[in-house]
Amino acid sequence: MNQGVGKASSAPKAVQTDPVKISLKDCLACSGCITSAETVMLEKQSLDEFLSNLDKGKYVIVSLSPQSRASLAVHFGFSPYQIFGKLTTLFKSLGVKAIFDTSCSRDLTLIESCNEFLARYNKCSPTDEERSKSPLLPMISSACPGWICYAEKTLGSYILPYISSVKSPQQTIGSAIKNHICQKLGLRPEEIYHVTVMPCYDKKLEASRDDFVFQLDSDGERIAEVDSVLTTGEVLDLIKLGSVNLTNLEESPVDKLLSNVDEDGHLYGAHGSSGGYADTVFRYATKLLFGKEIKGPLEYKTIRNADFREVTLEVQGKVVLRFALCYGFRNLRNIVTKIKSGKCEYHFLEIMACPSGCLNGGGQIKPIAGQSAKDLIPLLEAAYSESVLVSDPFENPRIRRLYDEWLGQPGSEKAKRHLHTEYHPVTKSVTSQLQNW
Ligand code: SF4
Predict the structure, then answer these.
(1) What percent of the chain has a predicted confidence (pLDDT) above 90?
(2) CATH 3.40.50.1780-classified regions of the chain
(3) What is the atom index within ligand 1 of the atom nearest the CA of 362?
(4) Taking burial as the number of CB atoms within 10 A of a residue's CB, which of 38, 120, 170, 336 is the most buried?
(5) Which of 102, 354, 364 most suits a substitution to test ligand 1, by most atoms within 8 Å of the C-beta?
(6) Would the pLDDT of 54 be above 50?
(7) Rounded CA gap, 310 and 308, in Å?
(8) Average pLDDT, the chain
(9) What is the number of the ligand 1 atom nearest to the C-alpha of 360?
(10) Could you report the per-residue pLDDT of 15-45, keeping only the tens digit for each?
């Protein structure tokens, strides 16, 4: 639309401008988006879209996050394993062919993260002073799309080299399904419709990134690793929509191909309700770099608040590894200021945009009447950790098989192609135009 300009010479000179366009690129992942592009994108990833794809002849796979499982388990008063079995019954009654568990693909991302950290650490200058100027360390975890979105759109090019290139568990399970598991099932990737159930809306933005769409040949169909994302709350809507009585619903056997369930029916996974990145990489680096094996839980020290905690390893009185969990925008803004000024002393940062991490994601089931978010988090933490056996990702037989059959070694060319990604500074087109208003 062209803006009309008056001819009166005494009138202030109007500036002819193009209409402001808002696109997905302008989204800051605040979960409050209302623009047309986001609406189209979100419609593609809504409950209606999921339901409409159930009878289009595709092989539908659902991948369930452990945070969503914990949220539904607490809400309905079941164990995480029980809710997994009941959701398997529910989804299969709708026509879904398999329900997997992203704790399994998270083990893949953790192994690749360990490998990447070691490579960065070994390449880095050994002196603290020089290290602080290197874009290799601190390595920053990349599983949180809220953080990635903020980094790309607000912080830009200086921060991006610090961010791990490993894709999130959502995208690695998508890549595994569309690039490898489909062949085992005798299907082409485009014959699969893959849905994830996640604790936040930002995962919808993540699944929509061009980086996570591939083509088998130059004029072939564009194939998304993840076709649709449902939040935990949307699964609750689905249960309500069908008036499903979960208490009466039988538990089906869990699909073990890509799920962390052992032969005795126990769930297992890495320690840490937001992914266990700092925990796993710290243990790995301690063992590989300094020959020390840590048994039992790591001792985190609270630094500023419960959402900023650190763990260190000292050798001969000197700190040789310093890792931190840094959750919530208040803490992450402080830490990126330190990185920018070259004063960050951490080797690794597990950054999550939500205070308290993923169990507190915006897509989780809201607290019930009379319950505060503060009351709910410990219940979710307990459900998440008490009924899940802590395991070493490197010992996961499902992941070993993926490396044996598909990827080769951690950090291999194939692993880089399918499990790693790149980040891009994004011009704040609307914001900069708005500043001129
Ligand atoms: S921290 Fe929050 S925004 Fe980030 S992945 Fe977890 S739930 Fe999503």
Answers:
(1) 76
(2) 36-105+168-269+395-419
(3) 7
(4) 170
(5) 354
(6) yes
(7) 7
(8) 88
(9) 7
(10) 445 655 555 555 555 444 444 445 556 666 7
Strand ranges across the sheet with 139-140? 139-140, 348-352, 318-327, 308-315, 301-305
Place of tokens 């840094």: 326
> Cβ neighbours of residue 147 under 8 Å, at least 6 residues apart?
140, 332, 351, 352, 353
Weakest-pLDDT range from 28-42, 276-290, 404-418: 28-42
Q: Could you tell me the distance, in angstroms and rounded to a whole number, from the CA of residue 79 to the centre of ligand 1? A: 23
Domain with CATH 3.40.950.10 in the chain: 108-167+272-367
Q: Which CATH topology does 36-105+168-269+395-419 take?
A: Rossmann fold (3.40.50)
Highest mean pLDDT, choosing among 3-7, 92-96, 213-217: 92-96
Average of per-residue pLDDT across 88-96: 98
Could you tell me the pLDDT band of residue 217, with boundaries at 50, 70 and 90?
confident
Are the C-beta atoms of 421 and 152 separated by less than 8 Å?
no
146 CA: nearest ligand 1 atom = 3
Question: Hey, whose CA ends up nearest to atom 6 of ligand 1?
Answer: 358
Q: What are the DSSP E strand ranges found in 52-207?
A: 59-64, 98-101, 139-140, 192-198
Task: Using alpha carbons, select from 358, 381, 319 the residue that is nearest to residue 146.
Answer: 358
**Arithmetic mean of pLDDT, 161-188:** 97
Residues with CB under 6 A from ligand 1: 144-146, 199-200, 202, 352-354, 357-358, 361
CA distance 410 to 417: 12
* CATH hierarchy code of domain 108-167+272-367: 3.40.950.10
Q: How close is the Cα of 287 to the center of ligand 1, in Å?
A: 29
Residue bearing the CA closest to ligand 1, atom 3? 146
- 202 C-alpha to center of ligand 1: Å? 7
Among 202, 229, 359, the mutation site with the greatest number of ligand 1 atoms within 8 A of its Cβ is 202
Output the CA 153–ligand 1 centroid distance in Å: 17
C-alpha 380 to ligand 1 mean position (Å): 15
